[in-house]
């Protein structure tokens, strides 16, 4: 699949280790998901996905509970869900998903991050058609064969099952996210190393040299540093 999901998560966690940024972003995402439906993760599937993902990033329960309580109470902040598409160095492709309470702020900031770091914004649809929405769920303590057996017994389909480092990662259709998790829970799994609904590129791009990778990472960091940006997806393959 071209990505080491546990390594990506660990890198992001390390990057945010000394800040509250990751918690703030999850707080907004949980609040928005809760406001769009029932503020109970057990009955609101979209909310449950966000909460499960937050847990894999070690977001404190207090942060999650605070966002849920805000959604249940008098919180009336309005957020827009926005998607931007663009290109980085060497024709790399990038998707940026944002949640914002100020649409006039977000687009200029995203455009500036692209322009200042060797990229440029594209029009809607210029990049997304080269990506597939995918559920990515990882666990430890099982082999790939054991995971396949668990999913088969639960009659759950997966696109792929790969061993990555010490984890087993399941790639599935987005509508199978909860079914995969429930199959694992029935098999006694209580923690997930990865629990994402993401956009995977159909093909990965290898950049020509270290300078190109450094420039690309600078662009991705600039985008992820923006307050309104929740997720950044791309098609560049990094070495382990």
Q: What descriptors fit this protein?
A:
single chain; 240 residues; alpha+beta; Arc Repressor Mutant, subunit A; Alpha-Beta Plaits; 3 domains; 4-stranded antiparallel β-sheet; 8 helices; 41% helix; globular; DNA-binding
Describe the structure.
GO terms for molecular function: DNA binding. It is found in: Cytoplasm. Belongs to the TACO1 family. YeeN subfamily. This is Probable transcriptional regulatory protein PTI45_03236. It is a single chain. With 240 residues, the chain is of the alpha+beta class. It has 3 domains: 5-72, Arc Repressor Mutant, subunit A (Orthogonal Bundle), CATH 1.10.10; 82-129 and 204-234, YebC, transcriptional regulation domain (Alpha-Beta Plaits, 2-Layer Sandwich); 131-201, Alpha-Beta Plaits, CATH 3.30.70.980. It is built from 8 helices and 8 strands. It has a 4-stranded antiparallel sheet with strand order 3-1-2-8. Strands 5-6-4-7 form a 4-stranded antiparallel sheet, sandwiched between helices. β1 and β2 (93-100) form a beta hairpin. The model has no long low-confidence stretch (mean pLDDT 90).
What is this entry, summarized?
This protein has helices spanning 5-15, 21-35, 45-56, 61-72, 103-116, 144-153, 177-186, 210-224, and strands spanning 80-87, 93-100, 120-121, 131-140, 160-164, 167-172, 194-201, 229-234. The protein has 240 residues and is of the alpha+beta class. α2 (21-35) runs antiparallel to α3.
């Amino acid at each position: 699949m071209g990505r080491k999901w546990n390594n990506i998560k660990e890198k992001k966690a390390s990057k945010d280790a000394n800040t509250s940024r990751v918690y703030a972003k999850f707080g907004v995402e949980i609040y928005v998901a809760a406001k769009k439906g029932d503020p109970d993760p057990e009955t609101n599937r979209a909310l449950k996905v966000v909460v499960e993902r937050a847990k894999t990033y070690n977001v404190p329960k207090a942060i999650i509970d605070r966002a849920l309580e805000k959604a249940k109470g008098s919180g009336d902040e309005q957020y827009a869900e926005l998607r931007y598409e663009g290109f980085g160095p060497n024709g790399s492709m990038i998707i940026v998903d944002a949640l914002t309470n100020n649409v006039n702020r977000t687009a200029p900031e995203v455009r500036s991050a692209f322009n200042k770091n060797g990229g440029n914004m594209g029009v809607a649809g210029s990049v997304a058609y080269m990506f597939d929405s995918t559920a990515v769920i990882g666990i430890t303590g099982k082999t790939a064969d054991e995971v396949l057996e668990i999913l088969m017994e639960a009659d759950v389909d997966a696109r792929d099952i790969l061993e990555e480092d010490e984890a087993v990662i399941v790639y599935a259709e987005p509508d199978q996210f909860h079914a995969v998790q429930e199959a694992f829970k029935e098999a006694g799994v209580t923690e997930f190393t990865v629990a994402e609904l993401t956009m995977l590129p159909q093909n990965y791009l290898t950049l020509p040299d270290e300078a190109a990778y450094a420039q690309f990472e600078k662009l991705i960091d600039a985008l992820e540093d923006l307050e309104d940006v929740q997720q950044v997806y791309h098609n560049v393959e990094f070495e382990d």
